[in-house]
Structure formats: C-alpha cells, structure tokens
Amino acid sequence: MTPLLDVQHLTVTFERQGSQTTAVDDLNLTIEAGETLGLVGESGSGKSVTALTILRLLQPPGRVVGGRILFEGRDLLSLSEAEMRPVRGGRISLIFQEPMTALNPTMRVGDQIAEALTAHGVGRDTANQRTTELLEAVRIPDAARRGRDYPHQLSGGMRQRVMIAIALACRPPLVIADEPTTSLDVTIQAQILEMLSELKERFNLALLLITHDFGVVAEMADRVAVMRGGQLVEQGPVRRILREPSHDYTRHLLNAVPGMGPS
Amino acid sequence: MPLLEVHHLVKHFSRGGGLFAPPPTVVRAVDDVSFAVDEGDMFGLVGESGSGKSTTGRCILRLIEPDSGEVLFRGENVLQYSRSRMRLTRRDMQIVFQDPYSSLNPRMRASDIVEEPLVIHRLGNASERHARVRELFDLVGLDSSHLGRYPSEFSGGQRQRIGIARALALNPALVVADEPVSALDVSIQAQVIELLLELRSRLRLTYLFIAHDLRLVEHVCSRVAVMYLGKIVEMGETEALFKSPTHPYTRALLSAVPRLDPDAPRTRVEFDSSSFRREIPMREIGRSHWAAV
C-alpha cells in the first residue's frame, strides 16, 4: 500500500547574510492513512519547518533544495500555487500552537470556521449549518451562541477547539498539529488530546503530531520520528522507541524527562 | 524553625469598574494561603494558570503588596518592615523568573546584569565586584570569556544561568524560582534543574519552586502544595501526595499528566469546578499530608 504522505530526501536551507544553514537535511518520513506519527525534537530540530514545507508555506529565506513530498499520488513540491490552494485546508490542514495568534481577532469564531468551508466551494447556508455541527463536534457547549463570540471572549482551551474545528472543516485525510497543546494547562491538554483521538477515529484522520513532549507522544502516537539538527535520528513504532530507543539522542531526550532519568 | 512561614496570606485584585462601567469583579488571586518551608528544602508550589502560585511568590518578596496575612522570614514578619528594612532583607530573598528572554535587560552586558544587585546594595568596590561576578559566572557554569556579551548572544539555557547568577549575587538564603525552566527545551531543563540542585547543597539554599509541571515537581521537590483558584487544596510530602492524592482537584490534575507508557491504563478523573467549595478548611489526612476535604 502506498502511504498517504511520503516525504523523500527533503532538504531545506536558510540563507542569511551569505551563510547557509540546513534546517531539514535529507529527511524521509511516511504516514499511512489513519495513522498518527509523533514528530519529536527540541527547538531548532527542523520539525516545524518540515510542517510548513509540506504545506508549501515556507517563506524566504527558507528554500527547498531537494527531495519530494508525495501526497495522494502527486509531488506537492511540483504543484503550482493554484493547484496547492485546494490542498491546504481541503486535503491537509494545520493546527497551530498558539490559537490566539492563529485566529483572526476581529472576526467571530463561527465565521472563521464557515470561511474554511466557503473557501473550498461550500455554499453559505451549508457552511453555516456545518459550522454549528463542527462546534458541537469539538464539544463547545452552547455551540450556536458561542459561534458568535470573538476569539478574546474564549479561554485558551476553547480557542484551540475552534482551531481544531477549522482544521477539520473540510474533513481532510491529513492533519498536521504543531505543538497543539503546549500553551495549555495540563487538565485542558488532557481534554484536547482526548477529543483529538476521538475525532481522529470518527473522521479516519492521519495525524502528524509535532511535539517536544514524549508523554503526549506516548498517549497519541502509533509511530514516532525523532529529529535533531534537521536530521531524522530514528523512526519506529511508539513502544519500541520509548522502551528500547536505538539511538543515543533519543535515550538522552527520554532521560531528560523528569522521573525517567537514571538518577 | 522553618526559614519561611506564610500565614493566611491574602491578595485580591479587582478587575473592571470605572465611572460608567459595571461594578468591578474581585479576583481572589491568593485567598488565605498558609504554608512553611524548612531550611534547605525545595518546596513545590504547583497549580495551573490563574491558580495564584506566582502571585503568592511575589507577595512573599513584596514585589506585590499582599492585602493581609503574615510572611515570617527567620521568624520575623517582613510585611511589617519599612521599605529600607525590606530592601536590606531582599539580600536574603531573591527570585529567578520564568522567561529568560524578557527578564534580562537586552541593552546590558551579562556582567553588568549580574553585577547590578551588588551596585544597588553598595557592596564592594569595582574590582571586588568584578571578581564576584567572575566567581558567579563560574558557579553557574558560564564561560567567563562571555562576560561582555549581551543577552541576545546567549541561548535560553545560558540566559537562565545569568538569571540564576544575578539572584545569587547577594548570597541569599531563600530563592523563589518562578517556573525557572518551563520556557526551556527538555534536555536544557534537566541541566538547569541539575544546577539548581547542586547550588542548593553547595550554598545551603532554600527554594520555593513554583511550577505547573507535575512530573518535574515530583522529581525535585521534597514537599508540595497544590493551588487552585487562590487556595491551597492539598499539601504534604511529595511521595505521600503523589501516591495518594485526596482532593478531587489534585486527583484530576495528576490524572491529566501524560504517561510515558503507551500501555498504561488511562483513568482520567474530571474535576467539576462548580463543586469547588473555597470555605472548606485544610485538615490532616495522614502523616505530613493535609487536604481541604
């Protein structure tokens, strides 16, 4: 079976003041339909750049210098902007870390969800109706009324639920979540992760979950890929990686989790 | 005798109000909080955002003036100290802030940042102070050839070391560490925690360690208090509290922490905030273990 997403030899560089930094270095990753891949690494490991590159949102001075990103039989890197547009949000969507900066502060949250639908050709009335369903799906109480709120009227957890509703609006087969719960309190994080697992089952989503937290990975992922300095350190089933990491760096990261270390 | 004792500490903030606005709402940021920290201890104050843990830390140093209560440091109530007496006492009580990016002045060199407390407290002449700054750089594991650099030239972990060096400049007995590692990568966190523990034994420091990361607190603190909406709901020796959490909020909080074992049974407990009664007093429920139940 061909994987849903197949990243092959992806290399991304950043050029600043004449010097070149390789942010992603010959990266190979695959995600099967319906699977959750946890992409783990520390700051500067290239995990977020990878996410942006998959969606072709990489901004200069970042530049893809090699590789292919195969998704549903096409190389995303070879698509034109016009061909890419229906892919973003329609086939692959992105959940950002900080819902406050990712949402439009001047627009009602319901309208922002509806916009994700109308941008992909859904009619206005259907979009409004689906918006309420989506708000219910992400378990926002009193959905119809909450849809008329502005982002600042919602708590951090509620905002992240709105972000997830937007990401799921078009039922894309692949969702990329970049540290979706990092800015949230642990009890809210648990609620969001639980909901995300449920929606994943219900909509048969594949999830690329970018995180620095091995605990989140253990709760959510089927497989894990560990990155450092733009390179893939290792990739494998979650139990194997957590119990018998084959690479020193993975062991080092696991030992740094409080309570896991040899001390 | 404990080094620090907090009795019935209260700080309320009022929000809103004004000439044409509806009457202000009162936020009970710190609502009758009491605990004691023994000398040489690392006491964990944990809670989620809005629990009042940081406000408590700041009230103890009088960076925020509390409304009422007592803060006994070496047996004396510092809330009754005059401004000048308090300033003198702050040599003994210092704070390390969460964000190593915003808590260091970007226009000052690292050496000046670490020296500043010595200048403010008029300690030593210039050459003595410079020697002390070098010593502090050494102590926190910074390279003294980087003394002349600006904060932006250091990594997050190194900046937090600068913040620690600044806090230690005056040889304090108590350090309030307000989320000192939560802005750092996990492997850097481990190094900074290692440093804090090492400094504790070398300099006989006492820490009030404010954190939201329960795994971290379980690992490093000997005693813990759990805060919720301005109240301590449970307190005790770390092992006892983590082994048999009693307050429903503590249970919910502990059950929400992701486990590193994918096969561990998930038994998440939800806490219904409408069931929270702030008037329930703390009572002893086991050896060195109290809960408001």
Structure keywords:
heterodimer; A: 263 residues; alpha/beta; 6-stranded mixed β-sheet; 4-stranded antiparallel β-sheet; 10 strands; 27% strand; B: 293 residues
Strands of chain A, count? 10
Using the alpha-carbon principal axes, give the shape of chain B. Answer: globular
The largest contact between protein chains, plus residue counts on each side, is: A-B, 31 and 32 residues
Helix content of chain A: 25-40%
Low-confidence stretches of chain B: none
Which class of secondary structure composition applies to the elements of chain A? alpha/beta
If helices are DSSP runs of H or I spanning 4 or more residues, what is the number of helices of chain B?
9
Spatial arrangement of strands, main beta sheet of chain B: 6-7-8-3-9-10-12-11
Through-space gap between termini of chain B: 28 Å
Name the beta content range of chain B.
15-25%
User: Which class best fits the helix and strand makeup of chain B?
Assistant: alpha/beta
Biggest sheet character of chain B = 8 strands, mixed
Our count of helices of chain A gives 11
List the helices and strands and how they pair.
The complex is a heterodimer of chains A (about 260) and B (about 290).
Chain A lengths: L4 E12 L2 E13 L4 E5 L6 H8 L7 E10 L2 E2 L5 H4 L7 E4 L3 H4 L6 H10 L5 H14 L5 H4 L9 H13 L5 E5 L7 H18 L2 E6 L2 H7 L2 E6 L2 E7 H6 L4 H9 L7
Parallel strand pairs in A: 3-8, 3-9, 6-7, 7-8
Antiparallel strand pairs in A: 1-2, 1-4, 4-5, 9-10
Chain B lengths: L3 E12 L9 E13 L4 E5 L6 H8 L7 E6 L2 E2 L5 H7 L3 E4 L13 H11 L5 H14 L16 H13 L5 E5 L7 H18 L2 E6 L2 H7 L2 E6 L2 E7 H6 L4 H9 L26 E4 L2 E3 L2
Parallel strand pairs in B: 3-8, 3-9, 6-7, 7-8
Antiparallel strand pairs in B: 1-2, 1-4, 4-5, 9-10, 10-12, 11-12
Short description:
Chain A is of the alpha/beta class.
